[in-house]
Amino acid sequence: MIALCCTDIVAGYEPGLPIVRGASISVRQAEIFAILGPNGAGKSTLVKAIAGLVPILSGTVMLGHEDITAVPAHRMIGRGLAFVPQTENIFANLTVADNIDLAASIMKVDKRRRLPEIYDLFPDLARQKSLVAGRLSGGQRQMLACARALVTSPHVLMLDEPSAGLSPRLVGVVFDNLRQVRATGVTIVLVEQNVKAALALADRATVLVEGKDRITGPSGDLASDAEIAALYFGHASAGKAA
């Protein structure tokens, strides 16, 4: 079953100046799908366009069987799509518990049922409920951002550069959490510059170049293809970060 299907997306911040130029992706239910590519390829713009944050000039976005192309950003979570931006994705002056509780309150979630599930999924956060979020480590902040998005039980979770600024150890911790999230049935789409880590995490990936998808396939195939790595990432091994 297809969870998210984007067809011929043209998107950008200014009319006549598209950054995404006809990109298409198809993401299966309960898989992890990575969007890779060189700097300036339009990766972040694509996921922001899907989330309703960047104007889509043409093309369609289907969430399951529903056309969400024109749905405004603030309505997306109600449709079942959650987006975690790279920065400013938590309230640093609130506690961990207040961050999660606020998201649950806005969406009128059954807190008695959902909050224990979230804390079971993120035990580090459960141990630090009373800590002001601004004092969390980078990895813990990413976990909190994910928890805030997941408290509303989305069908699809999209993340923009979840490994940005993290040490290799913390990248491993965050990505392990994403595997656990996928195990609950949530479909995950992530933009990543860390090619090695992304291909180790994802089931499938697409390479975006100059705003268009150039190649899509199983992550293992992309990771082992030196020609693809040299052509799209600028080196001979996909095991290095782009």
Description of the structure:
The model is unreliable at 236-242 (pLDDT under 50). Helix 3 packs parallel to helix 6 and helix 6 (138-150) packs parallel to helix 7 (168-183). This protein is α/β, with parallel strands linked by helices and 242 residues long. The longest helix is centred in the last third of the chain and has 16 residues, at 168-183. It is globular, with a radius of gyration of 17 Å. The two termini are 31 Å apart. 44% of the residues are buried. It contains 10 helices and 10 strands. A hairpin with a 2-residue loop joins strand 9 (204-209) and strand 10 (212-218). The strands form 2 sheets. Strands 6-7-8-3-9-10 form a 6-stranded mixed sheet, sandwiched between helices. Strands 2-1-4-5 form a 4-stranded antiparallel sheet, covered by helices on one side.
List the main descriptive attributes of the protein structure presented here:
disordered C terminus; 242 residues; 10 helices; globular; alpha/beta
Percentage of residues in helical conformation: 25-40%
| Number of distinct helices | 10
Instruction: Give average pLDDT, whole number.
Output: 92
Widest beta sheet: strand line-up = 6-7-8-3-9-10
Tertiary shape: globular
pLDDT under 50 segments (min length 5)? 236-242
Order of helices and strands: EEEHEEHEHHHHEHEHEEHH
End-to-end C-alpha gap: 31 Å
The rounded Rg comes to 17 Å
Which structural class best describes the helix and strand composition?
alpha/beta
Strand coverage percent: 25-35%
- List how many beta strands DSSP finds: 10
How can the largest sheet be summarized? Answer: 6 strands, mixed
